[in-house]
């Protein structure tokens, strides 16, 4: 689960949250309701079998037609747009019509076919490729890094693609210990192997070594990026039952979205189909039965209803092609600059821009970014790879649509080059810039390895990460964590690729550290007068120290 909130003072009323949908809980009451619904469906099918038998008898004996029989079960609904399920029902009740010689024949009446019915009919063949993902998670204990938390289980959705691979969400298999997959209509769970986890784009790729798993299943085919108001059908295994679930809606919005799990901003689709816990990793199909996205999060707010988000095919294909190209997931590159809008006309004149020039001003440049020696603060980015950037930082997307120019950057791969045109001192310059992934001073995620720590004289040293802050201060860490740490989390930039923010997380009470018990989450600035670059360098300096005292210089001038 993740949550987004505007930074600032803690709101009194519940803020809008965007949550990743991963867990599905089942109870005895849910199982009972499911069994009851299944029993009703059995009665409905049997009743229709009786109707079909009556129709056959009527054709055999046209002169003595039997009375029409009404099937027991649920009342049939023929209103357009009402959706019971995607499975084809038995034949509708026959209609008595007079024939020329006085006999009566039974003919099924014409049924109105709604638009969504044709969409669901095309989706049905692809539904067999949707699987249920069972995962056992064992999360590290970041506050006590020498141990792990108690394991827990979750269930989510996934779907089969070409090359004997399965896609699901990254948060569905985060900190996994064991992953199992179950196909639709099967009673067997197959052990899966995790091939790649794309944290930024919230996609994971799995495979199954058992060949029996792949028998009789056709992989899902991907479609193009849908347009606004295009119909979409989300298929998965959400909370509320054990069998497959289908919800339908339309594409409401296409823009750069905040990915809660990845702490990044990438292209995303907003739809009005219901996305609940357990839907994560399930495909979203268009009216041709092709996959146009992966369900991954929804908006929870008292003023919002049915707002779900889908990872679109450009992001999915980037993840797949990145894995195929490099044999592993390398990530989405960034330009490595912070920029400012140039909408103020006086600001544009002061920067030496002409009336026909548009762009955005560079505020800061990441010291670890490859272009840090080419670009300079106050440069105005005019275009990226030949696409002109507007004063508000957007570029043309499709007919009548604009999108943030970070979309152009995210379409590239790590190590690719891009042509950036800038305005500097009223002169236009062009640079070929190599793109790289983002190096944060406080990482938003850690890899599969447990967190590192170092203990000397009862002092527990560790490197600060977002999971560590969340473990220490809860999901509201952006309000409750120390101001110094939050300032570095939000604004500080790493000076080198191996720089870390090292803190004393706690003091394990002992005779040697009397009087230091109250030191908690305080940054270590220097050791014996030498600056602390990362946790490993601190450990090496302490181990090699021959001085009489170990002197640690901390934040707030503590010693």
From TrEMBL:
Residues 76-98 have a biased composition (Basic and acidic residues). It comes from the Eukaryota. Pfam families: PDZ_2 (PF13180), PDZ_3 (PF17815), Trypsin_2 (PF13365). The keyword Hydrolase applies. Residues 15-26 have a biased composition (Polar residues). Residues 1-12 have a biased composition (Basic residues). Residues 51-63 have a biased composition (Low complexity). Residues 344-435 form the PDZ domain. Residues 1-26, 51-105 are annotated as: Disordered. InterPro entries: DEGP_PDZ (IPR041517), DEGP_PDZ_sf (IPR046449), PDZ (IPR001478), PDZ_sf (IPR036034), Peptidase_S1_PA (IPR009003), Peptidase_S1_PA_chymotrypsin (IPR043504), Peptidase_S1C (IPR001940). One of its GO terms (biological process) is proteolysis. Keywords: Hydrolase, Protease, Serine protease. Belongs to the peptidase S1C family. This is Protease Do-like PDZ domain-containing protein. It comes from Gossypium darwinii.
